[in-house]
């Protein structure tokens, strides 16, 4: 988006690095009797890739949905770009984006049409050029005129990632972004995220069940179980917190711990 380009020069990003771009405080979400999130607090730093790790039902998707404003938290506070989320949702979401392996895009539209719809929603400058760039980035150029219904699940994920980057977001929320991608495309996606973090100061929150990938790509990892944040730190800090050789071992130790502080 043209208006904000000056604020994303590398020197500005250096100044902004290590500042919180997103703050979550005491976030709780109850679905009736079920408390999916129980007082979760953390910061996402500018230019950071933060991995959210937790078993099935831990509350990862609920957290992402709260951060997107798809569901309202029961209590707690979310602040993004220094603005309170509940009061500035539209303004904030213009500068964010999202991809998930369980959200499919309109199936009857072609890939080109799908991207163009989002380019126009986000008021992207030179939308046609941007759509071409995104299709190229994810090796989807040959399918530009195919309806999305013809895509394999991996191709659909690539289209979701292309859509997620269409507005050059400052914060990207990714729910299992590499699930369903073949190893080569998963590697390419990780490389791309690292590059965008480096070049554009992109900040990323992403969930994955691939612990090796999480260890490789994340600056910090948040371990969630039963709606509670158990630990937050670099993979090394998490390993040492649970006296583990690797993140996978730390993950299983965390799950075994009965009373975690
Ligand atoms: N709309 C809902 N109504 C009732 N309960 C819900 C709802 N959404 C989520 N839950 C419950 O909240 C808990 C957290 O779910 P959530 O989908 O956030 O977990 P998750 O960590 O993303 O799991 P997974 O790894 O399986 O995707 C689960 O117990 C789930 O059953």
UniProtKB/TrEMBL annotation:
Sorted UniProt keywords: ATP-binding, Nodulation, Nucleotide-binding, Transport
SMART domains: AAA (SM00382)
Single GO MF annotation: ATP hydrolysis activity
Keyword Lipid metabolism on entry: no
One Pfam family here: ABC_tran
Superkingdom classification of source: Bacteria
Residues making up the signal peptide according to the UniProt record: none
InterPro entries: AAA+_ATPase, ABC_transporter-like_ATP-bd, ABC_transporter-like_CS, ABC_transporter_ATP-binding, P-loop_NTPase
UniProt keyword annotation of Nucleotide-binding present: yes
Protein family per UniProt: Belongs to the ABC transporter superfamily.
Protein name (record): ABC transporter ATP-binding protein
Taxonomic source organism: Thermosulfuriphilus ammonigenes
């Amino acid at each position: 988006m043209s208006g904000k380009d000056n604020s994303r020069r590398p020197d500005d990003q250096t100044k902004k690095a290590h500042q919180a771009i997103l703050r979550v405080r005491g976030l709780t979400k109850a679905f009736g009797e079920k408390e999916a999130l129980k007082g979760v607090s953390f910061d996402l730093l500018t230019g950071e890739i933060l991995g959210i790790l937790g078993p099935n039902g831990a509350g990862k998707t609920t957290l992402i949905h709260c951060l997107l404003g798809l569901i309202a938290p029961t209590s707690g506070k979310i602040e993004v770009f220094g603005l309170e989320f509940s009061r500035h949702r539209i303004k904030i979401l213009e500068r964010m984006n999202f991809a998930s392996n369980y959200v499919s895009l309109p199936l009857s539209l072609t890939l080109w049409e799908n991207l163009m719809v989002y380019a126009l929603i986000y008021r992207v400058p030179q939308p046609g050029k941007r759509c071409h760039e995104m299709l190229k980035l994810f090796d989807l150029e040959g399918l530009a005129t195919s309806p999305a219904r013809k895509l394999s699940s991996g191709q659909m994920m690539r289209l979701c990632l292309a859509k997620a980057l269409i507005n050059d977001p400052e914060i990207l929320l990714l729910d299992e972004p590499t699930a369903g991608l073949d190893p080569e495309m998963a590697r390419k996606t990780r490389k791309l995220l690292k590059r965008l973090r480096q070049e554009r100061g992109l900040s990323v929150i992403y969930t994955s069940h691939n612990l090796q990938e999480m260890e490789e790509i994340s600056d910090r990892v948040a371990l969630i179980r039963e709606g509670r944040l158990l630990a937050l730190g670099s993979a090394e800090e998490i390993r040492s917190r649970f006296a583990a050789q690797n993140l996978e071992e730390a993950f299983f130790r965390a799950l075994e711990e009965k009373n975690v502080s």
